[in-house]
Amino acid sequence: MMIRIICFLAGIGAVGALAHKTISSGDGYASPDAYVTLAAAGLVVALAVAVGHVWRNGHHIIAVGMVLALVAGDVFQFGRTVDQEMQKRAASQAPLVAANTKRAEAVQRVTDAKTTLASLGSASPRLNSAIAGHAAALEAARTDAAKRGCASNCRKTHEASIAAADAGIKNARVAHDARRQAAERNLANAQTALAAMPVKQSASSAAALLGITAVVFNAMLAGLKGAALNVGAIFALAFAGHGTMARADDDDDAPSESARDHVARFALQSYDKTPSGELTLTDARTDYVRWCRATGATPLTLEAFDRELGMLIKSAGLPIETGDAGTVIRGMAPRRLLQAA
Q1: DSSP string for 169-217
Q2: Domain 259-340 has CATH 1.10.10.10
């Protein structure tokens, strides 16, 4: 009995805690959904406790329906628990994830800066073109200088071309050096910013050790927690409300007593067959309750007791009459009355 009480209290505590967490994670107890959540939690407790008794009393279809309702509710609550747990873990890991994202961006900026600097080389296409133009101007001046009548006429033109080419080289070199210096500064700044950031850390060290992503690891943890709370609570409540427990002084390996054997044991210990005897169903119920208290047996429901006793009386061939005095069993009397006679 103590084990059943402990399981009952633990099951109620788990269901209540889950309901409170669901309500607190939403709009609070002021929300209309809060009452629905509380009602669902109470229904889960009632169904889990009652389903064993319903099945034992022969109402199998009702019991199956109750189990289906429990499964549907448990799957729903399991999904809610997993969703809330993943949101909680994602929120706690958000700062670290953001820091890792910034560091990854900083690493990419360093890589891009190095690529840009390397692409500049020692000379730009503009500088190479200016150098080639200068060489062409010099070659044209030398070629035309050998021509008759061009020594004086073409000199000024070639000198202007060479001077323009020199200016082009100078301007191209200045522009190239400026771009290279800018790329070097950009690389230095990116490296300085990267060095100031903390080393990248995993949002979940256990996930890193297992070689899985933090999202998958969080889903695994949330699923295990949801299964432990939801499924564990259902089974604890079902155990607390199911069947007749064996007595403490009974053999642990002895099979559990069926309802039919239970009522038969009560009848054999309490009554005897006698032609002149009669027993009302009301008296039988009273005697049964007293017998359970005296023997420490867990009583059946009155409905189950009436059904099992009726089938037992019919199998014994005793008549059962129903009249103004209620249901009366003929040919059976309590042992105490026979002893007094």
Answers
A1: HHHHHHHHHHHHHHHHHHHHHHHHHHHTSPPP--S-HHHHHHT--HHHH
A2: yes
Where exactly are the structural domains of the chain?
Answer: 2-96+213-241, 108-195, 259-340
pTM reported for the whole predicted model: 0.38
Task: Give SS3 for 278.
Answer: strand
Percent of the chain with pLDDT over 70: 77
* 202 CB-near residues (< 8 Å, 6+ apart): 208, 214
- pLDDT (tens digit per residue) in 282-323: 999 999 999 999 998 899 998 999 999 989 988 888 898 887
Question: Which residue has 């001077």 as its token pair?
Answer: 163
Q: What is the DSSP string of 50-88?
A: HHHHHHHTT-HHHHHHHHHHHHHHHHHHHHHHHHHHHHH
For residue 314, give every residue at least 6 positions away whose Cβ sits within 8 Å of its Cβ, in sequence order, or none: 320
β-strand partners of 271:
334
Query: Which of 74-83, 164-173, 260-269: highest mean pLDDT?
Result: 260-269
Annotate 247-270 with DSSP letters as a single string: PTTS-TTSPPPPHHHHHHHHHHHH
Q: What is the pLDDT of residues 82-105, one digit of tens each?
A: 776 677 777 776 777 777 788 888
Torsion of CA 218, 220, 221, 226, to 10 degrees: 120
Q: To 10 degrees, the CA torsion angle through 239, 242, 243, 248?
A: 30
Q: What is the pLDDT of residue 39?
A: 83
DSSP code string of 216-237: HHHHHHHHHHHIIIIIHHHHHH
